[in-house]
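Appendix C reproduces, verbatim, an entry submitted by the partner laboratory led by Prof. M.T., so that reviewers can inspect both the input and the predicted structure.
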Amino acid sequence: MSAISALDYTILALLLAAALASVLLGLKRRAALIAEGRALPGAAAPAGWRERFNLRAFASRGLLTSRLKKRPVAGLAHGVMFGGAVVAILGHAGFALSFVGVPVYEGRFGFLVMELGRELAGILMFAGVAFFVVRRLMCIERLNTGGFRRGFVAMELLFLVTILAGFAAEAFRLANPQYASRGEFLGLVLASGLREIGVGPHAVATHLAWWLHALLGVAFIGLIAHTPLSHMLLAPANAALARRRSGITLAPIDFDADPPEGEEISFGAAKLADLDRKKLLDFSACLWCGRCQEVCPAAQTGKALSPKKVMTTCATYLENGRLDDVALIDEIGLQAVFDCTTCAACVEECPASNSPAETILEFRRHFVMDRSEMPDTLALANRNLESRGHPFVGTAANPDDWRKGLDVPFFEAGKTEYLLWIGCSVAFEPRAQEVARAMVRILETAGVSYGILAESRCTGDPAKMAGDEMQFVEIAQANIEDFRERKIQKVITMCAHCFNSFDRYYPELGADWQTIPHSVLIDQLITDGRLKVVRNDAEKITFHDPCYLGRHNDILSEPRRALGAVAQLIEMPRNRKDSFCCGAGGGNYWGGKGGTARINDVRMQEAVDTGAAKVATSCSFCLLMLTSSASKHGEERRVFDVAELVAESLPARAETV
């Protein structure tokens, strides 16, 4: 007869209900804190929430931890824990069916699931948890730098002891010959060991071991929502609310809206209550794992910014209920906030689907629009953008210099198919002007109907990413109105930042045209046979992915195909969505000082180490940053835009533009 009675299971069921109530209370407390944030756009209506729910991210990132696939050992450990937990939960649910007469321990199901499956599940969970305990005790730098979250090790040890207690209870049960088992192989070995040392069937010992395992398990469940292991519930929820579009998306600001009653007009964020609820959920779900720190170009070159510290500081303020404490923004610091290159590496890397960069940019907005504070060099560029229409202070270039000697058509409404958007960097930086010249040659050769605007323009991206949303909106609205008057429907960009602004932010202000990056169009022209190129099999080129094309907009294959058509492509170790930033983004083209190294120097060294003779990119700012660093590796020109390399490979060059 079983040593465990129906009364035992009844008491356990009541304790388990209390543990689940504890979980709900813990989640309710966190939800109350998160609710103090600003509502998400459209979240007030049920349809808004349904539209925002990202089922794919919930399943892949939240449940299957897909973002850990780049870290195979940690990914495997999470995988075996998750798989083991699923089988264990199903096994315990199946056991409950035995109370209503279902013979769950009989036949193939009993052997594969209730015995062998649960046994393997316990072993896998133990192995996975043991790995994480050992790793935390090894004091890995990323786990400690920027804040160490206490409570993980204690909960992981409790889980390990719970699993061990489960095997002990199993061993005592199987020590009694009346309990036959085929699949509980570890339990059978342990039971045999008990018999060898003289511990035979003993109902009291079996009863105590069972209760020890049960109480430890109940305690573990009850503590989940009150400890760092709450991420098991919060991270999947956070993934479900993740944006479907890659990269960073800053919420629009309604400058005409009246502030809440009793509050003054304020832009951006100085305190937690200024942030939306998704960002507060980010802080609750944050693992303090430091993976954002490992990929952040600012942090990895010794600058003031630590994305992990931003998250841990905000998480601590949230946990302590300091939602209205304006000391937060100054604790994080102006320099750290402006060190962010907006590369979105932290967003791409985070296993909990957090977006540290978006939080940082909200602080940046407040520094600029509420406190009129920003680094001096960036402030100078921003003022130049406001007064002269471009941020390039002290440039000697004339905006028409790039087309000298060329017969470049102007856009004509109803006649021209594409607007070739020149942008500010191409117009005012001599090195970038070569990209426009190459692009004109490509378009002429392919017979594309295109034209330019008579005057140089900026999309306003430097203002937006510097935190000056007002100036961005003003520039964008003027461009949108002008494009409408000219009936522009298709735009070619040569700058990744221009593309991102046109494609991501202009539509919410009323824009309705199609924007295509020049590398994507070049690939299309080659694929369609409209552009014939000559491939040099002996030449080796490595490609630097612009953050604003790769991570922000998933444009990865097109520039590679275009380059592969003209030469042999060699990848850098960090490529595609794992690419390392050039350092220009977020206004750091005009700043980015300090630290132990320049970001562009680090990236250029990676390119040189591939052994490729040429470095290619498809963004004018990346071109400028890497060209600046290339001079340290010889006087020969080494960095090129995709358009330049494709234009060089066109036959009969002398007969064309």
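The chain has a mean pLDDT of 92. Additional entries are available on request from the coordinating office.
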